[in-house]
Design brief:
Blueprint: E1 4-5, H1 7-18, E2 26-33, E3 39-46, E4 54-59, E5 62-67, H2 68-74, E6 78-84, E7 87-93, E8 99-100, E9 107-108
Length: 109
């Protein structure tokens, strides 16, 4: 089971992480309940991780933590960073998703 970050996403996360006033161990990505389709992605910096509950992925020094339950919904997913006419942000390309809501902020499997 794994996830990947594109080079652009990796660089953007490292840039944002370097601007933080506190020291963080890495980026946490989670799948949480919510949104009109049932699930949403949550990203944030975390100071801690748990070897028993988390999978740790490393991208050229950047650590990404994904709890085992979230990884079940994200196995094989790619996280990208897009900067276009409709704004900038992280985009998840998840092969496990069977549908999304109209606004694209939530998904179902």
């Amino acid at each position: 089971m794994s996830i990947t970050l594109t080079k652009k996403a990796e660089e953007k996360v490292k840039e944002i992480l370097s601007e933080q006033p506190e020291n963080y161990a890495g980026l946490r990505i989670q799948v949480v309940g919510g949104g009109c389709s049932g699930f949403q992605y949550r990203m944030g910096f975390d100071k801690n991780f748990n070897d028993q509950a988390d999978n740790v992925f490393e991208f050229e020094g950047l650590k990404v933590f994904v709890d085992k339950t979230s990884l079940m919904y994200m196995d094989g997913a790619e996280v990208d960073y897009v900067d276009g006419l409709h704004g900038a942000g992280f985009k998840f390309n998840n092969p496990n998703v069977s549908g999304t809501c109209g606004c694209g902020s939530s998904f179902n499997v």
